[in-house]
Design a protein that fits this description.
Elements: E1 4-11, H1 17-27, H2 33-40, H3 62-67, E2 74-79, E3 84-89, H4 97-104, E4 109-115, H5 126-137, E5 142-148, H6 157-174, E6 180-183, H7 207-213, E7 227-229, E8 232-236, E9 244-253, E10 255-257, E11 261-265, E12 269-278, E13 281-283, E14 285-287, E15 291-296, E16 307-310, E17 317-327, E18 339-343, E19 346-356, E20 366-378, H8 386-389, E21 390-394, E22 401-407
Parallel strand pairs: 1-3, 1-4, 4-5, 5-6
Antiparallel strand pairs: 2-3, 7-9, 7-16, 8-9, 9-15, 10-14, 11-12, 11-16, 12-13, 12-15, 17-20, 17-22, 18-19, 18-21, 19-20, 21-22
Length: about 400
Amino acid sequence: MSHVLRLITAGSVDDGKSTLIGRLLVETQAIMQDQLTAVQNSKYRRSRSEEPDLALFTDGLEDERAQGITIDVAYRYFATPNRKFIIADTPGHEQYTRNMVTGASTAQAAIILIDATRVHNGQLLPQTQRHSAIAQLLGIRHIIVAVNKMDLIDWQHSHFENIKKAYAQLAQELNIEHFYALPISALQGDNISTGSTNMPWYQGPTLLSLLESLPLSHTAPIDAPARLFVQWVIRHGGSSAQPFRGYAGQLLSGSLQVGSRIQVWPANRSATIKALWSAGQKREQVQAGAAITFSLKEDIDLARGDFISTANHPVTLAQHNTAHICWLDEQPLDPARPYWLKQGTQTTQIRIKDTRAVGTITDGHIATIGLLSRDPLIAVPYEQLPSVGSFILIDPGSHQTVAAGMLLQPED
């Protein structure tokens, strides 16, 4: 099992995401002394405090430093004696919600930061709700609600409990089965790697100990049936005495071995693996996650976008599908026009049949849609296998990616 946890921080502007990551880097000794000195002497500071501005460790772009905001996804690496971490600091601004989708797409855990000073009468900010919805839709298993800036509200236990109660209500609405909640001060370090004498009423784990204890999930299930999109058809022959035709792609789940029977979709034809290659070497067997090339005993035609599965595990094909989407374009969704849908290496034209949303769907909005595709999609729900159940929508005029989507159970 891998000992690396991929996580994401998300929340509204100025909730303290970059400061929290800076604190984690400092307390796990991922920052060199010369880097710390450079930050202490930086002309870009978000506060007048004598303490180093920890947010500058992640605000890498000049525009970010000048404006005091984060507008890109910044990946950082740190480790404890028990685990390694890859953390993504994502933008808080509503117009950069698309960047949050990018960071969350590979994350196993999400830290949703809430500024304790900005929650009044149990009203969470819209970005807290939106980012929580995205984390849930993308199937992130572990959601940690870190109530930050407790130092600015005099460490009030009752205020923390009110925020926790408000988030519990949101979690129920979003079908988030479980979340962790803890009070912190990223600036001062309370409940980050050690407990807090300022909050003796909190007896739970620190943030780092919680991150160390989260169970890891396999991103490429080996015990599942084999699944693969054909990415490239490899041919050479001509004057060769033995012409070669092979097929390349990444094995998304399961395993294949020489002699395995496979099914080719959408043609629904069966074949036998003749030979396998991975990492430039001939193999008898390959497992999920490997980039592979294979040849077949039978002379059948495969093309880019075709889907391969284990022969005794058929897949469902459907032209009518329901999906969650996160709209990423400034131009709103237009149900009257067609879009291109890309699933794996397959691209097909689709039309939006219906939208289950109130009002116009524009940049950063999340909605449930019904779609009709020209060619049948591999109807594997995202929650079963994200690498197959995910897709993007492309504007045929601008060729821009306008939405990221997650398939639900097929309609037919």
